[in-house]
Amino acid sequence: MRDDTQGMDRRDFLKTAAVAAGSAALPRSVAAGEPAIRAEVDAFLKDYVAKWLPLETAASEASWAASTDVSEAHVAAQVAASQAVNAVAGAPEVIEKVTRFLAAGADLTDLQVRQLEKVRLRAAEAPGTLPDVVKARVEAEARQAAAQDGFVFTVKKPDGAVEHPSANRIDQVLLNSNDLDERLAYWKASKEIGAPLRDGILKLRDLRNQVARGLGFSDFFALQVADYGMTVDEMLALCDRILADVKPLYIQLHTWAKHRLAKRYGVDPPDGKIPAHWLSNRWGQSWPGFVEGIDMDAPFQGKSKEFIVEQAERFYVSLGFPKLPPSFWTKSDLYPADPASGRKKNSHASAWHVDLDQDVRSLMSVEPDNQWFDTAHHELGHIYYYLAYSTPQVPHLLREGANRAFHEGVGDLIGLAAGQRPYLKQAGLLSPQAEAAPAVKFLLASALEGAAIVFLPWAAGVMTRFERDFYAGDVADDALNASWWARVGEYQGIAPPEDRPETLCDPATKTHVNDDPAQYYDYAVGTVLKFQLHDHVAREILKQDPRDCNYHGNEKVGAFLRDILKLGATRDWNEVLREATGEGLTARPLVAYFEPLMAWLEAENQGKPAGWPE
Ligand code: X8Z
Ligand code: ZN
Asked: What is the Å distance from ligand 2's center to 511 Cα?
């Protein structure tokens, strides 16, 4: 199982939990039937887990092999292993029993209801009542992943030479090059991967929807949102609120960046949107490297790639987390594949909980730079979450985050902590210029990069809206690019450098669209959550300024986090958050964190037109 696991419908749980609470007041004689069904459910869950877990582990193992070494044989093995686990998870008798048990939810314990909801959502991903569709989906998923992971980028150089750059190399050019022609060549090369994935993503949309509708979900997007106990409309409304909260600051950042980049490339700033190839990320989801005097990569020059992951582990250990199990180091695939080996692997970082116990692994292509430093903390957050809830107190079916956004938010929180200047200085990872830079400049760099302000229009806007429309049937097959760029323009104020015909497929250049579908709001909600937890940690535990604090070595912070992580999915996420921070989900700490930037940017941007035409 990867960190994009399926969730449960909390709405149903809350309904049943409320009924269950009421039943406690009934006379004993009325409640006398409870133990019988509870015993029956326990027996069912025990039997289910005994059958499902070994097959789930085998399917994860096969998926791992397919993602770390793309080959026909690995695709075939992955399909066979997924089919085997689906036969158990989606068996018609499982669906029948779960439905019957959940109808009697009033007599069950909370933990039983939660596990049954997990079983139900797993069945909804592969209902045995639609065997042909489920089989076709498994095959199409595996083929799409292999086509993506095995893709070779090609750049034709001005001198006629041909380069096959890795994803890391493309990212480096977009980060460092001031030559707009070179930038355009690498940006366009990065989008070539979309075309061969176009037919596959259309086929997958239909198969994913057919599967989800089998158990009554309106479409595949609704099935994924069900993890939060929210409707699609509620999730979209939450994302819209996040977008509204950050929009004024985003517009100022957009204006500032447009002028800064025009100066850097020696050209006039465009009137409205920023050309996509100007930005230091293939999708414009993060804009690192723009702030003069803040070179976050310099301190990593001369360090080894191993240092990046080991330093991240040291940070967690300083908070009282254990050292990673030796198998993490032997089984993970942490560094770029040797090009000479011919091995192809997924280039996007992920964390894996293979046996839902101690077999934890990460797939990365770490290089010694600041982006991988941040990503390594993010991935270890998933890994430490897995380990924290792999205890006898947490049933295997509930070994997941409180919700998926918690899983994304935790490692990001530690990434945010490891990006604070007091810690970087102490670790020898802060350049003298970055140390001397005014606080507002450092804050500016933080708003632009990683998962912060610039990230949110992309995550809560473009990705969430595009995928929602895609699965709801609101995007015509011959308008994928048109619809994609309409969203990119609307939310990010970014324009394609040239026409993007429908033979290409720019949405499918983003790995999540292919292999982690309809879940990107996890990162938007996770970002809000990260700043909420950070604010609590800095103010209430460290008693330090959230913008200038140091978690390192503080075991109280570690204990605070472990108290959240060790619960897995045994509790309602709203309650977990409220108990941890005293508040429900709120973007207030996120907005407050960047508040000093607004006045500075307004002064910098004075006289420059802000925003872009709709
Ligand atoms: O995919 C990731 C992680 C793995 S869960 C590296 N992230 C998103 C992305 O890269 O698009 C982290 C930030 C957003
Ligand atoms: Zn993640």
From this structure: 13
